[in-house]
UniProtKB/TrEMBL annotation:
Residues 548-749 form the Peptidase S9 prolyl oligopeptidase catalytic domain. InterPro entries: Pept_S9A_N, Peptidase_S9_cat, Prolyl_oligopep/macrocyclase. This is Prolyl oligopeptidase family serine peptidase. Transmembrane segments: none annotated. Residues 1-30 are annotated as: Disordered. Residues 36-261 form the Peptidase S9A N-terminal domain.
Length: 752
């Protein structure tokens, strides 16, 4: 337990809070459902439904897949398959593990190497598992979703791992025991673990026992389609035979049981995820579950002797208020015994938020955002500053308008790497750089000469190549003013000779949900498929400037995300959802007002919750956009809780079965906001049959309704594989990204 994302399910303590609980669902009355002529499309794998999908796909492919599209797709695929990309690694024992896809291995290779080999120009990789060969041998289109190692006994090598494989790229996985020394799966007939495909998680308890949360073999599921119980599975048992050790109510989101095997701090946890922002956590002591007494809206994590707390809302403890988004630490055993003595490690302000943290052996790394640019602090628990907090040192490694993250290499390595850390730095025009450093206690310069701090010795290990002429482009940050006066930051990436005449094809991207932050990131795909594409002079001959130009790429940091911590997220929850859409519209209007683009040249793109975002741009702000690319989206907010994993998002959007909540949900349900007589932007809706998170249904129904209404230029495409990502290999990913970018370019850069 060395790295924690700050946006991982921090959770409220009021069971009647409208924003956070499914309690009102049991109201006596259920909100009526509007007439839905497209319910038949909800049969995901029905013959008639897939025939409709096939017709739609053929129509869209006929439109988009021209010679220019083929060039765009080839350029993207070259980026994705490049052998010069950084092979990011995870250290386990003496080896560095990596999962790699390229042209020759589209499904990928799970492999490892030594440090000496990794830092060379041409590392020698030891292939453990070839997913393409496995898929061919077993006749299943496996998608690799990771591996979890059994911690070896002292002096032994890491040998056995539970490998997660999805048959179609969806969230449901088959978990199989793998022997990295023999490069084979452990035969179930000989006692090897092999769990049927289902949603859930697996954690090693010991060499012969797994802790499992699963919906396979008749184990109960929650209303959100996730595991409701946790079981202890011993070698040779089926899941149905395993001992149940934990259970949650059906209307909660999911149950997890997991074992922390850190030497000297071994312990087992169970977590009841009530919803996305509420959870209760138990610790197993003497075969009994001991509840960790903390409000459900406080995110907790354990590391060795420390218990860490990040409240989602202001938290009052013994007369002291700790701000939402702060980070606290307490001695775990002392806290369980009733002590409430905290060390305050971070307090947010109006500009700065905590995104994640990671422990090395002796130090704590905090990854922060200050106005959506990275800052990193290193804390030393062994030394106390004048305010009785841990000594803090800023890590000088973060250029402006970049995303830089630090995390431990291997905090349990006692042979010398325990205080090593990785530093991954990227920016819109800065290819990713991987650095490795070592932290040590020492003296650091200060205004008074020097003071106690943490010093770092570090060096660049790998640099990603440039995939477009990034030196020709400039990154700017601007702030739009939303409807309620809130300043909303956004990044603009454009040619250094950008002409502010309103004629630049502009792609505006956003998300705005679940406390997810959109930060600067290098993308060879955006560089090639958008920034470097050029309009023809003829296409712009009717405008003030007829010279050719490239695309402009914009990322909006709207409310609902995590860029400014929990308060930025909560500002757009449920009945306040409109603020996210007002923010995005304000950015669009600011781009138009500044002369960057115009309605005719402005398009927006978003996926998943971002698909809901751009669906609302389509229906509520059609006057601002010329084109909309809407991917794997939520769109039917009346029935979303009944489709795939939708029930789990009630905490984010509200419960449409509750009449009072449907009244505000209906105001951001794009499927119900379509009207005759409106000039809608050209629209491309894309999804995947195998998406078992959002599912393809809402995308299908939206496209069908728009087409039936006679709305022109509505296009739909549904990939068969790929799950919620819409693609399970580089070839599929290149096709997906090429379709979206090519659609937007055809509309926004054309002469019509």
């Amino acid at each position: 337990m060395t790295t924690t994302e700050a946006d991982q399910t921090p959770l409220p303590d009021n069971d009647t809070d409208l924003e956070t609980t499914s309690g009102p669902r049991h109201a006596a009355t259920i909100a009526p459902e509007p007439t839905d002529e497209n319910v038949w499309l909800e049969d995901i794998h029905g013959e008639e439904q897939l025939a409709w999908v096939g017709e739609q796909n053929a129509r869209t492919e006929d439109l988009l897949e021209d010679a220019e599209y083929a060039a765009v797709e080839a350029g993207i695929l070259e980026v994705l398959d490049s052998t010069d990309r950084i092979a990011m690694v995870n250290k386990r024992g003496d080896y560095y593990y990596n999962f790699w896809k390229d042209q020759e291995h589209p499904k990928g290779l799970w492999r490892r190497t030594t440090w000496e080999s990794y830092v060379s120009e041409a590392p020698e990789w030891d292939v453990l598992l070839d997913i393409d060969a496995l898929a061919a041998a077993e006749g299943v289109e496996w998608v690799f979703h990771g591996a979890g190692f059994l911690r070896p006994l002292d002096g032994d090598m890491y040998r056995f791992a539970m490998v997660s494989l999805s048959p179609d790229g969806g969230d449901a996985n088959r978990h199989r025991e793998f022997d990295v020394e023999s490069r084979t799966f452990v035969d179930p007939a000989a006692g090897g673990f092999d769990l049927p495909t289902a949603k859930g998680n697996v954690s090693w308890l010991d060499a012969d026992t797994l802790l499992v949360s699963s919906t396979a073999e008749g184990l109960p599921a929650t209303s959100s389609s996730y595991a409701r119980t946790g079981v202890k599975l011993r070698r040779g048992q089926s899941l149905a035979q395993a001992e149940q050790i934990f259970e949650i109510p059906e209307d909660h989101m999911l149950a997890i049981v997991a074992h922390d095997s850190t030497p000297g701090f071994e312990r087992t946890f169970a977590v009841d995820y009530i919803d996305f922002y509420n959870r209760r956590t138990w610790l197993l002591r003497d075969d009994s579950w001991v509840a960790i007494d903390v409000p459900t809206d406080v995110n907790i994590s354990a590391h060795r002797e420390w218990l860490m707390f990040r409240p989602q809302k202001d938290w009052d403890v013994s007369g002291v208020t700790y701000a939402a988004g702060s980070l606290l630490a307490a001695d775990l055993e002392g806290y369980l015994a009733g002590s409430r003595q905290f060390v305050v490690l971070f307090t947010p302000d109006d500009h700065t938020s905590l995104q994640s943290w990671s422990w090395t052996k002796d130090y704590l790394l905090l990854n922060l955002l200050r106005d959506v640019s990275s800052e990193i602090r290193v804390l030393d628990p062994s030394r106390v500053d004048s305010d009785s907090g841990w000594v803090v040192t800023a890590l000088d490694a973060c250029p402006p308008l970049h995303d830089v993250n630090a995390y431990a290499v291997d905090d349990e390595d006692e042979s010398g790497a325990g205080n090593d850390y990785w530093l991954v730095a990227t920016g819109f025009t800065t290819p990713t750089t991987l650095t490795r450093g070592t932290l040590t206690a020492g003296e650091v310069p200060s205004s008074g000469g020097s003071t106690a701090g943490v010093t770092s010795q570090h060096a660049v290990v790998k640099r990603s190549p440039s995939f477009f002429n990034d030196g020709d482009y400039e990154v700017q940050q601007h702030f739009a003013v939303s409807a309620d006066g809130t300043k909303v930051p956004y990044f603009q990436v454009a040619s250094k000779d950008l002409v502010l005449d309103g004629q630049n094809p502009t792609q505006l991207s956003g998300y705005g949900g679940f406390e997810v932050s959109r930060t600067p990131a290098y993308s060879g795909t955006i560089g090639r498929a958008w920034l470097e594409r050029r309009t023809s002079a003829a296409a712009l001959a009717d405008g003030p400037g007829s010279h050719t130009r490239g695309g402009v790429y914009v990322v909006a940091n709207i409310r609902g995300g995590g860029e400014y911590g929990p308060s930025w997220h909560r500002a757009a929850l449920q009945e306040k959802r409109h603020r996210a859409y007002e923010d995005f519209a304000a950015v669009a209007q600011d781009l138009i007002s500044r002369g960057v683009t115009s309605r005719r040249r402005l398009g927006c793109v978003g996926g998943s919750n971002g698909g809901l975002l751009v669906g609302n741009m389509l229906t509520q702000y059609p006057e601002l956009f010329g084109a909309v690319s809407c991917g794997v989206p939520l769109l039917d907010m009346r029935r979303y809780t009944k489709l795939s994993a939708g029930y789990s998002w009630i905490a984010e959007y509200g419960d449409p079965d509750v009449p009072e909540q449907w009244e505000f949900i209906r105001t951001f349900s794009p499927y119900h906001l379509l009207h005759d007589g409106v000039e809608y932007p050209e629209t491309f809706i894309w999804t995947a049959t195998s998406d078992d998170r959002v599912g393809p249904v809402q995308a299908r129904k939206m496209a069908a309704r728009m087409q039936a209404m006679g709305i022109p230029n509505v296009w739909f495409h549904e990939a068969l594989e790929g799950g919620h990502a819409g693609a399970s290999d580089n070839r599929q990913a290149a096709a997906l990204q090429a379709r979206s970018n090519h659609f937007l370019w055809r509309v926004l850069a054309g002469s019509n």
